[in-house]
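user: Please review this fold.
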Amino acid sequence: TSSPVVSTSVLTNELKAKMQVKMAHGKIVGISRILSLAAGVHRVRGRARVRVASFAEVHIVGPSGVRKMRAVLVYRWGYNPKLGTSQSSLQSVLTTSGLDEGGYDPDTLQVANGLLFLGGHLYGHDSDTNDTTEMAAVFVAKPAVRDGWTSVTVENTAAANVTVLAVSPTTNTDNDTVNHNHPYLLAVGLSDGTVIILSYDLAARTNRLSSIHKQSAALLRPLCILRGELDIVGLDNCDCLWPRERFFSMAYRGGGSPSLTWTPPTSPSYSSARDGNEDGAECTSLSWIPNSSSSGISSLPLLAAAFSSGIAVYHVIVVPPSTNAPIGILSPYAAAKFLVTQEQSEIMEKNVTIPKPRARIGWYDLGPRHPTCLTLLFEHEKRVYQRDSMELLDTSFVCRLCLAAIDIPWYGGVEANVNSDDDDGRRDRHHRPIGVICQKELNIDGESHNDGTMSIVSSHSSGAITCYSSALGNLQVCQPACFTASTTSIGVAGRMDDGHFSSLSRPVASSPLGLDSNGSVYFGAMKPSKANNDHQDVMLTVFSVTTCRSRKEDESNNNQNWSIMPLQRHWLLISNPGDNSTTTMDDPVAKGDHVVKGGATTDILFELTCGENPMSGLVPQRIAKEMGGRRVAVMFSSGFFGGNFVYDGGSNNESRVRTHTRLSPDAVAYTILDINNGINNGGEGSASFKLRHGRDVAFLPPSQTADFYCSSLVVLDHDGLALSITTAITSHTLPQGENERVVESIQKCSLQYEGIVGRRVFALLNGGRGPPEILLAGYSTVVGRPCLLLSKHYLEKVDGISEQLTLVEDVGLGHRLWLRPGEEIVSVVELPVQDDEEGAAVTKRSNVAVASQERVMILSMEDSLTIIAEMDVRLTCSSLSPLGSHCVTFCASSCGGSARVMYLSCLEKDAVRRHGIIASIPASKHGTAHNTLLAAVRPDRCIYFGSHSGLQMGEDDEEDEHAFVTPLPCTRPLLLLEPLIANALCQDGARGKNAATNSAVQLSLRTIIEKFGRKDSSFPHGDDQGIGTFGAGVTSHVYDMLARHKCNDAASILLTGNLPSDLISQPKILPPWIPLQTKLSAVTANTGGAELMMQVLSCGDSELAEYLCHSDRSVVPSPTFPGQLDLSCILAEELAFDALREGSSSAFDAIKLLDLAGRQSSESLLSQLALSLGTSPSTNKTLSDFEKLLKEVGANVSTGNKNVDTINKYAELCSGASLRLMHQRKMSGGASSEKCASSIPVSQLAPSVQSVWESERVRNTIISNDVIESVASSHSNNDAAWKQSINKNKHVWSAGPFGKKESLLELDGFEDWLGRCRPAVLGKEGVAIAADTGERTLADILAAAAMDEEAAGASSDTSEENKSLDSSRRKNWVEGVGEGRLDEDNLSLYIRFSEGADEDGNWRADGFTDLAKHAHLARLYGSELASIEATTSSVDEGEEGKVRLLYDLVYHDGAPRD
């Protein structure tokens, strides 16, 4: 994905003007270098604003020559108050003149909340010795107030210099849940190796900054102190990052060769805050954890610090101290050192001076299930000395980039409550280990490093680590990579993400439900049993929680002695989509003056934390849900740390062996859970489960009898070398009171013949029409590439009768699909099997959608594994949701943290729209940045999660430790016409190439357009609700696809709501925002489609539209016709040329369009066409049939002239002239003629054939439609799919999901379209209100009457349930009274005027039939004053095939009003 870039020039006229004000003499002529950059955010009236500060060195020309001058340039970034200018502007310029009294370090520059911070020192005098001393100081500036610096001396420390600064990111955010009392935190690293935490809240809230020390001292208040270097010195060897690596070693002379000695860089010109630090024990880097990380631990105020001896992470819990209380000292939460104790001892013993290691530290987001890791840039020397003389033999420079993890304990582990007392008597918590999980040696030698330093450009959410070398002046972008199960490294970032590390950022969830080819909810290949219907559409997700329990050690002082131990926990959540009666919210939510009931709900199902062994905690990696069943399998991968742990619970002393880091890209265990058990436990998640060895599992179809319920799974062994079957049985007949038993098969099928190591296993059910097949994703050790394998091992029934399956081994080689190097399969989902019109399967196997970390593919499984569609994209989750048999939808990442719901179809490779965007999901403005999880797709909405981790804070014995805030899924409306049209076009078996002539495609298009096409009535929504009546969902790509595949009947329905043969006088062309050319392109090639083109061209002119569509134009007043320069006339002429290109069958369409054009060129061609058609040997009409048409176009040809040769000569000349005109307009592919005389110009035709130029329009009349129709060959639509009109009441936004109008989203506000957790639905009251407004459909009455009639005449095979319902309804009521009276009895007269469908007009004499039980007959007197026309109202037309079409009785304008 790409992100917008904002840049600016440094040397501008604005900068010169501001610098000129600050200098008495001199002029800026250039920029020498940029010393440092910093950026920060502040809020103005609730809006976030970015400030960028640049520490620049400029060249000044003055009376004394050229000199250098330093200044801090502050820019407004990302916006500009001046419209029409760049997105950056110079706000202020601050010189360093106020800092001359001391020293400063440009690298310490920080920006936050409109303030600038700079670290350094001030000079003072010792009152006893009168010596000059240095005092650590922080310089503060507020550019918006004044261009000057205020110096603040750092108190409670004897350090001489400030070496590094870091500003807390928890400023003015709604996510500041932990540190809300002190959001303005400034960490100050000092030259003595300590860190002090200051609060700058007063500086942020006041504009009265002064340089007076007494007044400015209060701007930065000390809160606590971190011992830093002293915390690192006392660590054991087990806390060393590289315990087996030596940087200082001794050897004999033959053990190495001398090399160039590297010395640390020094500053040659300006005084530095780092000068004078003799022992080098300083704080080198500080970094607060970003609160936008996806892990719940990011909500804690964690500070990472790097020192000369190691690194530490501090949990900064700041409690306001009392007036006389001392400043608190915090111990590290986690710590590690660089060198082992023996190495440090040898250096001190040999009295060798070696430069101290130097480190830069940052944070890296690994996803919601793992705590945020550390990025470490380590710089040091490796030196080899001669053992006896200590002569330097060899020196090498080490520049290493590392990714390190913090070992955070699991909930329930023995480490969670380990505490001890230190020597100072303070209650202390033992620090957590830090381990390196992957690293990379950067190619930078010590000689190049002398000229500059390396730094980390933090990029915690982009999946890469960016390092900058000031010596080389370049950037190195690296990303973690897991090459094998035992080898990890950090490699140079390329186009593809590493499969394992990218999977950590994706949320864990079950596969979402999708739609079938008809747009209905697809529940999978296996139909669930009635007992398990409640679980067929639930969504299962993993939610990770960081738990912090605080404890007051001293009740007498509420502000002291708090200890917090973060713990990791994982939960399995169950969510209901909330779009049917069984999953609707039970708790109403108030919205305004009414109650809202809608949206998905979430509850706890199981706790998945595996913390019994604190050193081998397991992390949920995948979820597999049983299709049509009630069981779910959860796969676990091992944590980052492993090893031995010894703890004596009887004492406070702890004996620990250093854990080693590890990386497991594959799952190592799985468990089988029953959803019913989790629900029966009341949502507490306290049910226990048993872990089993395995790398992956796939569910087979379940089986069920009256006594037992059985689930079968295909299990991939933990080493990926064999397959087996595991069966889970639930039965009340099991012995010893157990109700569930899991049986693991001893028989296994080896994969050695296939030559692959399996990584994933999937079961392909093939629509339930055959035995399941096994699809494997693995790695070929022979070829050295990943692949997909359709295994030859097959499944068969155990006894041929029951549904129980067993795995049979086959030594043959299965079909393979080779993947890209390093590609890792993320998800596989079967698409619905394509059926024909009779419900039989068209193909043996269904298509399969496959997703990896870098692309989405659709595979054909017929005969071999073939990619028929693919798209390079980065997924935010592993969810793939079917949209028919040839289309899949997924959620892809976009710039700025937003996500896009996209689709991929199987249309031919050069199709107009093979993939596209369905909806955009904006990034959250508050909270952490999580990848969007697509949880479910419905015909009218999608459901997604935006949060996958959280933080639980509480006090012991005061709150339930199992209670936490669960995330609510968001509901967003979807308009799925475009992807479902793309899927329908693929139903021809040729990926859309034969869509125009394939009956299955046309039938599918009709079904999709009925349910997802244009909506002409707002019912059952109100006028300000729903998707409106302007064609929402109809996109230009829909028309482009239909035009390319020549599906013009479908395009006609979308454009006008009717077929070309069902013309209405004033059609509503939808949608209005699509360009006219796009609408016309969908019908240009349609035979007999001139009427539709004319409707589109006349859209907006009601009088012209009514005139053109009227069958007898003589009775309609003539409108004002458009002039020849009007756009509609120009387009009509061009469309006529397109029609001629289709051949002689479209010639009469061309005549109609040329007649509308009314231009000089079109009139000439119109006359020629009339003559050539009248003499064409292919027509079955005689010349006398064309007499009226020829007279209409002004051709003076007498039918009494028997000289046929003359007529044929005219026809030959006209035919040649028309082809010449088409050629001049670069029309290719026209009809060829052996008698073509293209060299004859129009001017050589006889004057009687040529038209005369009149005023504005050549001919101010339009040919009568019946004249053209009398000579044109009739064109009938032979496709059965388009024989009848569309039933508009089948639209999804009219019928509702699952046919329930009350579950429709209300959509009465703009925010509903962006996704809401609690969207409003219409409800039964809303549907009733809409019906009471006069839009109640007559079909409701008929449907109720039909139900009563069926119930009254129920046959003997009627279900007992229906009989009881009918009897309870009429119980205690007299027949014909109250509930005993049928709705049909209340209907006195019901006329649909369906006789208007008869072309002979017999209704004028026979009258209209009453459809009520009374069967009246209504005759219309004065029928010549009225006509019967197709209805244009929003009344329900009834169910197709059961109710005759609805017509309107329309009186003419001339009819008397009385």
